Amino acid sequence: MGILSQLSILHLLWAASVVCQYEDYDFEDEYGGEPDHQLPYYFNPDTQAEVPRFPFPVGCAKECFCPPAFPLSMYCDHRELKTIPNIPSHVQQLYLQNNNIEAVPAGPFTNVTFVREINLSYNKIKFHMIDHGVFAKLSNLLQLHLQHNELEEFPFPLPSSLERLLLGFNKISRLPGNALEGLHNMTVLDLCNNLLDDSVFKEKPFSNMKNLMQLNLCNNKLETMPPDLPSSLRHLSLENNSISHIPENYFNRLPQIIALRMSHNNLQNIPRNTFNLPNLLELNLGHNKLKQVFYIPRSLQHLYIEDNEIENINVTVMCPALDPLNINQLTYIRVDQNKLTSPISSYAFFCFPLIRTIYYGEQNVTGSRLTQLRTPVFRRFLTPEEFQEAEDNHETLGQETEEDHEAEDRYFRPYYQ
Known about the structure:
Subunit structure: Binds the alpha(V)beta(3)-integrin.
Protein name: Osteomodulin
Number of domains: 2
Number of strands: 16
Order of helices and strands: HHEEEEEEEEEEEHEHEEEEHH
CATH architecture of the largest domain: Alpha-Beta Horseshoe
Domain LRRNT: 59-93
Oligomer: single chain
Shape: elongated
GO biological process, one term: cell adhesion
Function: May be implicated in biomineralization processes. Has a function in binding of osteoblasts via the alpha(V)beta(3)-integrin.
């Protein structure tokens, strides 16, 4: 019996191990699928990554640093360099920002074949100091950073492979029509903080950029809306210009717009259905001269109309009809620094059932001094305790509101910074 008992126990253990194997078996492994629950991967800087083997020697310019864990990157930033060092042919990411570089000669790029990103921001580069065609021959280049330099003209020619071009904070005043020819893969173009005026639109420089998704033209000298923009555009930044009018039906050609920023302009009147856009999420028209509100699309989530001359917010203009099957998505409105004498009508909460915050702040009712409505901030979905606390302490509520507003601004920031 002792031997039989031991055999029985062994048999049970074997059967249990077989059952466990079937329970632990992931059939998705058999077919190469991904398991439903995977732990996120976190990069550990203390872990020594294995350097892949290259069919050529991996070199590095003596002025720069090439991390063993990232053998395709060369870091030459913040080193007070006045010239660009020779670049090994295998480098894919080249970082030269924050130096004193004044010229981009062809010599250092002679053997460069695989480079995909070049960062030359925060230097002293002028247009006439860039060798003609030095960038155009880089057939794998995807990103070029040249913001915060001294460029007077658009740096062309450029390779057709380019996807992101950042030229903010320069002195560019001209944009020749052929400068953007062939850049069919471009998705992001940043020209903020330059000297561009309406004359740059004469040759319709953006019309053939069929994949352009983000165009930044803020802080220039524009007085009219840029014409002939590609229908692929999703983010348009026109803040800090002198635009006074939006032509009727202007956005009919831009149905994919998600974010539109036109604060700090001279807008006085908005045609009623100007923003009838099916995908618009953020609309910023703060710091203009608007006197009335306008229709907003059902997709809109964030609306900024602070620092205008609005005396009354007509909710029926913003929301002319209710549709229970297609409700408005608006969650946040900022209306401070206007001329409101009373809060927005409660009808707004039928039109905008998802609204969480209305920031009233201070109003310019008298013109000589700022006044504050009884409710500087309206918040929905508060617990009774939170509501009572807010009622008891307006000062604390105001401080929290400013912080919350800044946090919300940071949260919804699709633009390159």
